[in-house]
Amino acid sequence: MPRLLVVHHTPSPAMQSLLDAVREGAGLVEGVELVTRPALSAGAADLLAADGVLLGTPANIGYMSGALKHFFDTVYYPCLHATVGLPYGLYVHGNDDTAGALAAIEPITSALRWKRVTAPLSLTGAPGVADREACRELAATVAVNL
């Protein structure tokens, strides 16, 4: 059974709402095992056991969360060659801007040679119904592409 790993940093109610929607969306795809790990506790073993990954982070002061950066620092060398072509997706939430976080993540996933299966989801402000639906669709799209 294909395994989708969701690596997230969820420090706020807004991020929790989006993570809940991601779980719902991944659950719509039959035959996919969903594994959810906070970015500070996810590691190389989690990533190596996954068939795809969905990353979720707040945009903090124009950058990805320190927790997601820690995840990348932890898995980069152990997974550099073993995860080439790994399907991935990304959602970023900020109060008013996500551009810096998106720009910081792209070179890392490119260096890892992961395969982005859908455009990154950039969300600002309080998440509404459309934002949660977009997260459900994102997760389902990544899950289908495992």
Which series of helices and strands comes N to C? EHEHEEHEHEEH
**In the CATH classification, which architecture applies?**
3-Layer(aba) Sandwich
User: Can you tell me the residue ranges where pLDDT is under 50 for at least 5 consecutive residues?
Assistant: none
Provide the number of structural domains. 1
- Indicate the percent of residues in helices: 40-55%
Counting DSSP H or I runs of 4 or more residues, the number of helices is 5
Morphology: globular
- Give a quick account of the main beta sheet: strands, pairing sense, barrel closure: 7 strands, mixed
Instruction: Tell me the name of the CATH homologous superfamily.
Output: Flavodoxin domain
Mean pLDDT reading:
97
Distance between the termini: 10 Å
Structural class: alpha/beta
What percentage of the residues does DSSP assign to strands (E)?
Answer: 25-35%
Overall CATH class: Alpha Beta
How many beta-strand runs?
A: 7
* Estimated radius of gyration: 14 Å
